[in-house]
Amino acid sequence: MEEAGYRLVPFQQGADVYVINTCSVTDHADKKCRKVVRQAKKFRPDARVAIVGCYAQLKPKEIAEIDGVDLVLGAAEKFNLPQHLNNLTDTTETSVIAGPIDVVKDFLPAYSFQDRTRTFLKVQDGCDYQCAFCTIPLARGKSRSGTIEQVRRQAEDAAANGVKEIVLTGVNIGDFGRREGVLPEDRETFLQLIQTLDELKGIERFRISSIEPNLLSDDIIRFVAGSKRFVPHFHIPLQSGSDKILKAMGRRYKKDLYAHRIQLIRDLMPDAGIGVDVITGFPGESHADFLETYHFLQELDVSYLHVFTYSERPDTRAIKMADPVPGAVRQERTTQLISLSEKKKRAFYQKYSGTMRKVLLEAETDGIWMTGFTDNYIRVRTAFDPLLVNELAWCGLDELLPDTQFECQTPVPVSDESLILNNVSKSV
């Protein structure tokens, strides 16, 4: 967009073009889309509004009926946004360009670059899994990725722009290596990718985003445990602690494999932060199945949960399954798991009370506080200091606040760590 002559402006300022990126994973995508369109038109009534993203691929005609939308682009066309904007006329008819998802085969590497210290680097897109509850393969296409060399160049570019931490993202990142025309035996692997990135100078930290438990191999875990730059933090979808429900969901593992992965992480990286995705109220989930999930998670040594309430999605296998769970029961189970997550997160944080850890302090601030995360994903706040923005600093985890973050009184930049080495806890 910048190459085409556009520049980024604040949402409230009133833009010439609003580009709204939509999701199909969370509930009420249509309602949220309508709300943002209305907000955009409030700030600039004559603005062009373009809708992209998963929902735009799945329901383009539905989006086109939203008052105020000028352009709807599917997965294959969203990267041609400037061209499509230039082709818009003054006609009131919405332009919809969204073809079948099976024609989407190209991988376009990208990373986010905003006023922040962390960037999200896309290393993979699409998914070949067919989980019964998920519309992502319909919205994003087949699994595909670029080359290790392409990712390395993107990471070097981010480093040159001052980024200190890179989060590797994708739809199914453990499936990295699939490319059009490349035979399975010739594919690069996710392990090879992170081994290459670990040697990259200029980036202080790499963080792996959500990765499937069957693809998070023991070799990957062992590598992260001994790496220079990959932090001890994992986010591993579980979805259910019942093998019966996992099978119905079409997941590619059983809970014993999941428990093994968690135990290996704990054995090699006792301080690791571990997040878990879990879905409540999947069709056929009995009270006993839910209790099995609850107790499995209760005993599992993990740090926090992301809890999703199952919702029916068109064109998925799950929507046709028998024994749907009543909505009120789904919500009750979600509430119970959220409560369990809060207890686990607070217990995880409390283990580090009174210790010191390195924190990457970020640019976001309310003018009073600035925040950052430790390597194992503990949130810390300290008084805003412009000299500490985008800096690694030793922070004493002094006071655990009610909103589950630590307050650090006197952060010390890593460059001055000789001042505090004698006081650093052995647990660091």
Explain what this protein looks like in three dimensions:
The chain has helices at 29-43, 54-58, 60-64, 81-86, 136-140, 148-160, 190-197, 218-226, 243-249, 255-268, 287-299, 327-350, and strands spanning 17-22, 48-53, 71-73, 95-97, 110-111, 118-122, 124-125, 144-145, 165-169, 205-208, 233-239, 273-280, 304-309, 356-365, 369-374, 379-383, 391-396, 399-400, 406-407, 412-413. The chain folds into three domains: 11-99, Rossmann fold; 105-350, tm_1862 like domain (pyruvate-formate lyase- activating enzyme, Alpha-Beta Horseshoe); 356-423, OB fold (Dihydrolipoamide Acetyltransferase, E2P), CATH 2.40.50. Strand 15 and strand 16 (379-383) form a beta hairpin. The chain is globular and about 65 Å long. The protein is 29% helix and 21% strand. The chain is α/β, with parallel strands linked by helices. Mean pLDDT is 92; it is low at 424-428.
Question: What's the end-to-end separation, in Å?
Answer: 44 Å
The largest β sheet comes out as: 7 strands, mixed
Summed over residues and divided by their number, the pLDDT gives a mean of 92
The spatial strand order of the largest sheet comes to 18-19-16-15-14-17-20
Q: State Rg.
A: 23 Å
Residue fraction in strands: 15-25%
Strand tally: 20
Number of domains: 3
- CATH class assignment of the largest domain: Alpha Beta
At CATH's second level, what is the architecture of the largest domain? Alpha-Beta Horseshoe
SS field, number of helical segments: 12
CATH superfamily of the largest domain: tm_1862 like domain
Shape: globular
Unreliable stretches (pLDDT < 50, length at least 5) are: 424-428
CATH topology of the largest domain: pyruvate-formate lyase- activating enzyme
The structure class reads alpha/beta
Helicity, in percent? 25-40%
